[in-house]
Amino acid sequence: MTDSPVTLITGGGSGIGAAVARRLLDSGQRVAVTGRGEERLDGFAEELGRPEGLLTLPGNAADYEDVRSAVDRTLKEFGRLDTVIANAGFATHDSVATGDPAGWTEMVLTNVLGPALLIRASIEALKETRGRIVLLGSVAGFVFGPGNIYGATKWAVTGLAENTRREVTDFGVGVTLIAPGRTETPFWDSYGSLPPGHLLTADQIADSVVWAVEQPEGVDINTVVVRPLGQPN
Asked: Could you tell me if residue 16 is inside a domain?
């Protein structure tokens, strides 16, 4: 256990992040998860029986001091860092022409600045392990939607993934963008209802994340777009 790989996941207390954490813990990895809600993180740890290999770290994914502290505490607790997964993010579910700008700043900071801060805070540790960076994007970062500001943040994540890959590949660090389509997670809570049609599950997206993370040394999976059958866009 003391030599097993270590993964840090932002926004890991629910949804896709929590599903990935469960899968990695089940496979013998050690996992640190961050989130703004200490109560949610505590509930997640309790649900899993507070395993020895799980570290919960309250903090804001868009605050560099919080992100750097999470990386430092993970290294102190587990002694290494093999993978970081930038999963924290949310949508205001409104449009540029009719929406409420009050929510946009936090969304942009969390969705775009957050992954960049995680990369910056963890890259030296990842060089040591020749590790991997996983960014959770979205199909909305590949297709255009009328007025979709959330989609614009995910277009930024699409660009960030490739820009990062081009810099860190010479360090031996891999970069993977996982871009889910419609998925049944707490993402839709603020929307008021689930969208129509078939939805993926968080566990199904976790399958793609774990598959990318567990590729053999020297293999770098760069972009994975996962839609449910029936989603045309």
From this structure: yes
Task: Read off the pTM.
Answer: 0.93
157 — pLDDT class (breaks 50, 70, 90): very high
- The answer to whether position 67 is within a domain reads yes
Tokens, residue 164: 């990062």
- Mark out the alpha helices in the chain (DSSP H runs): 15-26, 38-47, 64-78, 104-108, 114-129, 149-168, 202-213
Q: Strands of 91-207 (E only): list them.
A: 132-136, 174-180, 183-184, 200-201
- Whether 108 is covered by a domain: the verdict is yes
| Residue 58: other Cβ atoms inside 10 A | 17
Strand order in the sheet with 83-86: 54-58, 30-35, 6-9, 83-86, 132-136, 174-180, 223-226
